[in-house]
């Protein structure tokens, strides 16, 4: 998956300047960040995993569309029942990916509660069908996901993830996690404006440095917080493996070198390294949690730009971005 166009409204009301901050919990066994949200009338709490590769909010479990579709296996409960009478919708469908399988769902509207703040008429998806494999169903342990939908029509999202904490802010950034607590330390580069929400944001790496020496490799990557490593094409990873010998590595993004923390030193082989092969080519790199957890990330769809900053809570052990 990759970061998609985040053009949908998180709440359909007048824009405000108040941040919505989610303090996330991390499940080490599932390797997921999550946050509790209350759905429906009467409300039911679901602990939804965060997916920075999507702009959709969708839920399953007791909110399945069964018996209208097959995504919920044999569970008979569904969102449209007498106890959830405030739910409205016209069965407009959407498509997304679940475990690399295409998922078809419908948009519905109801009240949800986040941080004790009610949101009325918010749109979220209910899965109906999964295409591509008749044997794939969504298990009960998966409650859905929170994507990066804009909040109050403010299309700025700030992301700070690690295995002992996590924070996502909708409607702005959180200076607490930015080195120097200064917004000017965020470096931006343009992103293409996407008109199709199924398209993917791709970000340029203009060079890679090993021990501060350029090795003249460039490529294009997308984020995916469902994988742990940084995945490059096999040719690039072979060049890096031959030159690294346990050294540090930096990626040049927006004319700035971003060095991975010392704890993520390159290993001498694929099993030790947080950087692996497997991407199809230089236009299909995937930057997983090894990169995402190392920096503060900003998606500013209003200005079509991607931002990155060193984190205040990380000891990089080397010279910072330059």
What would your notes on this structure say?
This protein is mostly beta strands and 322 residues long. The protein has 2 domains: 20-146, Acid Proteases (Cathepsin D, subunit A, domain 1), CATH 2.40.70; 187-310, Beta Barrel (Cathepsin D, subunit A, domain 1), CATH 2.40.70. 5% of the residues lie in helices and 39% in strands. It is built from 2 helices and 23 strands. The protein has helices spanning 234-244, 289-292, and strands spanning 20-23, 25-27, 32-39, 44-49, 57-59, 93-98, 101-114, 117-131, 144-146, 156-162, 165-170, 187-190, 203-205, 207-210, 213-214, 219-223, 230-233, 249-253, 256-259, 275-279, 285-287, 295-300, 305-310. Strands 1-11-10-22-23-12 form a 6-stranded antiparallel β-sheet. Strands 2, 3, 4, 6, 7 and 8 form a 6-stranded antiparallel β-sheet that branches. β22 and β23 (305-310) form a beta hairpin. It is globular, with a radius of gyration of 20 Å. The two termini are 30 Å apart. Residues 1-15, 74-78, 80-84 and 267-271 have low confidence and may be disordered.
What is the structure about, briefly put?
The chain has 322 residues and is mainly beta.
